[in-house]
Amino acid sequence: MAEIPERKLELVRKLLAVAEHPGTDPTEAAVYLEKAYAVMAAYGIEQAMLANAGLVADEVSDLTVTVGNPYQADRRALLAGVASALRCRAIYWRSGRESVVRVVGFGSDLAVVELLFTSLCLQMGSGVLRVRAPEGGATVSFRKSWMAGFVHRVCERLGEAERRAAADSPSGGRSAELVLVDRRAEVSRVYEELFPRVRRAGRRRLRDWSGWEDGRAAGDRADLEDARVGSRKPSGSIEGEPGDRIPR
């Protein structure tokens, strides 16, 4: 897997450390996250364009992440959403009480997925512990709906940010958008060769939506742009798992 250059990685780590700290004001955290993600997005687009020109080697590879409790399904959903926003594909299987998630993508994208997932996982985990269910509500179901809203909004915004970064990328030949389309297609080709027989994971259903809006608001604060988009709640269910699952 391609590695992010050490100087760039150190900068991103410092920015994320401030954003992740429980004492950081949410508005200030959003500013630091915006800077961190700008560095990572630019790196990903730069590597894609250099690889397309034959100036660097950036091959399709894979990343394996073990996800345990608590809130295992919600953390799997976060990993799968981040992977998809960064042109990767994820699959999981159960191993005892844990989930093994395998992410397939170009090496430069996998490096960003790993770094960003680790940071967002910390933010989601600390954020959900600070919220309280409405009076008379169940804490567990409230927290699950909060995390669903967080994941939905974060991944929504990551996709938007990636598209903006591609549109803003200078190009002397093929556009970044076309290069990224080809890379996503190549990832899908390799993925389907590796996992020719998988089934789609079922859609998770939430009985309690009480934490959804608060979770989306936290996802906005965890994201990296100033624009705010109107809240949208899916009708009845959300995609809460990585897209594919190896049957057991």
From TrEMBL:
Name listed for the protein in its UniProt record: Uncharacterized protein
Pfam families: DUF2786, DUF7168
Region (Disordered): 213-248
Stretches with biased composition (Basic and acidic residues): 213-229
Organism name: Acrocarpospora corrugata
Domain DUF7168 intervals: 75-173
Residue ranges occupied by any DUF2786 domain in the UniProt entry: 12-47
Coiled coil region boundaries: none
